[in-house]
C-alpha cells in the first residue's frame, strides 16, 4: 500500500506529499483507492459501470477473466483510471505546495522589509537622541564652567565695580573735584587713583572674558544678567552718544587691561604703587585724555558718567549676594537716580 505522508511546516501551511512506489504500483494504488471506496467495481459510478462491466453472454475479452476476482483487475475504459488519478493528485499537491511556498516567501520578504525599515528608523531616532544628549551635556558643562568662573571672579569684580561707582559719585556729588584741582601732591594721587580704578575694573572684566567664552557667558541663565551689565558699561564708556568727553573705546579699555596684568598673566593685576611708577612710561598714552576730562568741571553734568555710575552700582548689587558692599553700591545707586525717583523711594 502506498505511504502518503502529510507534513506541516513550522508555518503550518506547507504540505509535502510523498508516494512510495514498490514493484507492484497498480496493486498498491488499487489498495489505496480501495480504502477510499473507489477502486472496487461495485463502487464505480453507474455511468462507468455500464460501459466497463462485462456481460456473461459476451465473448471473453482479452485481459478479462470472469472467474477471477474483479478487485484485482483493471477496469478497462473507466474515466477514473488509477494512473490519471495519481498524476492529478500529485500535480494538485505540487500546485498547492508552490502556492503556499510563494505566499510564505512573499510574507517573509514583506516581514523582513518592515523589520529593516523599523531598525533603520530606530537607529535614526537613537542617533538623534544621542546627539541631543551630548549637546545637553555640553551645555550643562558650559553653564557650570561659566558660573564657576563668575563665582571665582565675583569678589574682585564687585570690589572693582563698587570702587569705581563710588569714585564717580564722589566726583559728581561730593566735591571730590576740589582735590583734583589742587596744585599739591594730593591732586596727583586723586587723579591717578581715579584712573587706577578705571584700569583695575577693565582688567578684572577682561580677565573674566579670557577664562570664559563670551557667547557662553552671555547665554547661561545664571550669568546672563551680569554679562548684560558688563556689556552695557563697556558700551556706555565707548559710545559717542554722549559726545567725546570721557570716551574710552573698547580697544583702549582692553589695552589698559592688558598692561595692568602682572607679567601679562590673566587673572592678576598690578597694585596702585606699581601703576603710579609705570604711569608716565606705560599708561599715559592711553589714559591722558581721560585724565584731562576728569580734571574738568564737565564731570558734574556728564551724562556718560551718570549712566556708568548707575550701571556699575547695579552690577555691584547683582554680584554682592551677601550684602558686604551694600552701603556703597546703594549710595552710588541713589546718587545716579533722578530726583523724582528718589522722592518716591520708600527707603
Low-pLDDT parts are 1-26, 38-44, 49-65, 68-75, 342-347
N/C terminus separation? 117 Å
Number of domains: 2
* Strand proportion: under 5%
Rounded mean pLDDT is 75
* CA gyration radius, whole angstroms: 53 Å
SSE string, helices as H and strands as E: EEHHHHHHHHHHHH
Walk me through what this model shows:
The chain has 347 residues and is an all-alpha fold. The protein has two domains: 7-55 and 67-114; 139-337. Helix content is 65%, strand content 1%. The protein contains twelve helices and two strands; from the N terminus they run ββαααααααααααα. The protein has a two-stranded antiparallel ribbon. Strand 1 (7-8) and strand 2 (15-16) form a beta hairpin. The longest helix is centred in the middle third of the chain and has 92 residues, at 82-173. It is rod-shaped. It starts with 6 loop residues before the first strand and ends with a helix. The relative contact order is 0.08. The model is unreliable at 1-26, 38-44, 49-65, 68-75 and 342-347 (pLDDT under 50).
Compose a concise summary of this entry.
It is built from twelve helices and two strands; from the N terminus they run ββαααααααααααα. The chain has 347 residues and is mainly α.
Layout of secondary structure:
Blueprint: E1 7-8, E2 15-16, H1 25-34, H2 46-52, H3 82-173, H4 177-180, H5 185-211, H6 214-219, H7 224-238, H8 250-260, H9 272-294, H10 303-319, H11 326-335, H12 339-343
Helix pairs in contact: 3-5, 3-10, 3-11, 5-8, 5-9, 7-10, 8-9, 10-11
Amino acid at each position: 500500500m502506498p505511504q502518503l505522508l502529510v507534513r506541516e511546516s513550522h508555518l503550518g501551511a506547507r504540505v509535502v506529499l510523498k508516494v512510495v512506489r514498490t514493484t507492484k504500483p497498480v496493486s498498491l494504488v488499487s489498495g489505496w483507492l480501495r480504502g477510499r471506496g473507489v477502486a472496487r467495481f461495485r463502487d464505480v459510478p453507474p455511468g462507468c459501470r455500464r460501459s466497463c462491466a462485462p456481460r456473461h453472454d459476451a465473448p471473453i475479452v482479452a485481459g478479462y477473466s470472469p472467474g477471477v476476482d474483479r478487485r484485482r483487475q483493471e477496469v478497462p475504459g473507466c474515466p477514473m483510471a488509477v494512473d490519471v488519478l495519481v498524476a492529478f493528485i500529485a500535480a494538485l499537491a505540487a500546485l498547492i505546495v508552490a502556492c503556499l511556498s510563494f505566499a510564505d516567501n512573499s510574507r517573509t520578504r514583506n516581514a523582513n522589509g518592515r523589520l529593516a525599515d523599523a531598525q533603520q528608523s530606530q537607529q535614526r531616532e537613537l542617533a538623534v537622541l544621542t546627539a541631543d544628549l551630548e549637546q545637553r551635556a555640553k551645555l550643562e558643562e558650559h553653564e557650570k564652567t561659566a558660573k564657576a568662573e563668575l563665582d571665582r571672579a565675583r569678589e574682585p569684580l564687585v570690589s572693582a565695580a563698587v570702587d569705581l561707582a563710588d569714585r564717580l559719585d564722589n566726583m559728581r556729588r561730593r566735591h571730590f573735584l576740589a582735590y583734583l584741582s589742587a596744585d599739591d601732591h594730593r591732586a596727583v594721587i586723586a587723579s591717578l587713583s581715579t584712573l587706577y580704578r578705571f584700569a583695575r575694573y577693565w582688567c578684572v572684566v577682561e580677565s573674566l572674558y579670557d577664562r570664559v567664552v563670551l557667547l557662553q557667558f552671555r547665554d547661561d541663565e545664571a550669568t546672563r544678567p551680569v554679562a548684560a551689565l558688563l556689556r552695557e558699561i563697556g558700551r556706555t564708556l565707548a559710545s559717542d552718544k554722549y559726545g567725546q568727553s570721557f570716551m574710552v573705546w573698547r580697544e583702549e579699555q582692553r589695552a589698559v587691561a592688558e598692561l595692568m596684568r602682572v607679567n601679562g598673566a590673566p587673572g592678576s593685576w598690578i597694585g596702585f604703587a606699581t601703576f603710579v611708577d609705570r604711569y608716565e612710561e606705560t599708561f599715559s598714552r592711553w589714559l591722558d585724555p581721560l585724565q584731562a576730562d576728569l580734571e574738568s568741571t564737565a564731570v558734574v553734568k556728564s551724562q556718560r558718567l551718570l549712566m556708568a555710575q548707575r550701571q556699575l552700582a547695579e552690577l555691584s548689587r547683582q554680584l554682592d549676594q551677601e550684602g558686604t558692599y551694600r552701603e556703597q553700591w546703594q549710595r552710588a545707586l541713589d546718587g545716579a537716580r533722578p530726583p523724582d525717583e528718589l522722592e518716591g523711594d520708600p527707603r
